[in-house]
Amino acid sequence: MWRYIAQRILVSIPVVIMVGIITFTLVYVGPGDPAAIIAGDEATPEILEAIREDLGFNRPFPVQMGDWFWKLLQGDLGTSYFSKREITELITPRLQPTLSLGFQVVVLSTLIGISTGMLAAWKAGSRLDRNLMILAVLGFATPGFWLAFLTIWLFAVNLGWFPVIGYKPIQDGLIPHLHSMFLPVMVNSILASAFISRITRSAMLEVLREDYIRTARAKGASEFSVFIRHAFRPSAIPVATVIGASIAGLATGFVLTETIFAIPGLGRMLVDAIVRRDYPIIQALLMVVAIVLIGVNLIVDILYAYIDPRIRY
Prior knowledge:
- The chain is mostly helical.
- It has two domains: 2-59, no CATH class; 91-307, MetI-like fold, CATH 1.10.3720.10.
- The chain is 78% helix and 0% strand.
- The protein is built from twelve helices and no strands.
């Protein structure tokens, strides 16, 4: 097991390097001049040239990339062009909203998706099955921004149950924190659970056709035992894969959600950095997201052996 983990980590290193090269290149060749944005519209060519020299824009592209990678290896994510503060210092207070949102969405979407998928498989072909799958298709096809504005209009504007925008940290109390996060959590959970539900149903139906399921029923096992003990565990591998993939989708979905609901997380920080052309923040956040996703995929692969004992590394 440990050898497999070490191999996967070593294999992930070239992936991280490639992501870093692509990230730095895309930001480097992107439109807009940070020096012009920093100096303002009335800046003289001499001022712009001085800013470019100070930021290192006049150096060759390979030198800039090599210096950026060297700082990353030392744990230095860089310095913001506009605030002149370390990016690590800027990211730290924004971790709590994003991590809280991600944890709640992953837990809630997993519970909803697996339970509805198992229920649909149990009642396969019935009206309940068809209705659940219709809801799953609608949830999978619904644009996130439209669902977010719909929930704001219904639960915040008309009913007044939740705030339109705003975020309360956990330090203000768990209940106020959960109350302020309910709408964004609900929106992302609906979108993520729809795909999990469909995959769970398909995997369960495939396993339920196996011979050992008929044997378990012939031995007198209850239907609940057949579903939980004999059918769900073998079908959990594709479900775990989908959950890992949904986390990757949440990483991009949080950018939209945090912007709409005014949550001061990493997603909103990325949007603000793109608007200001604050390239060091954009590069740092993209690298952080890439490393997190690689770690999630590694955890999912390791879980395979615990889900199905037949898998050996």
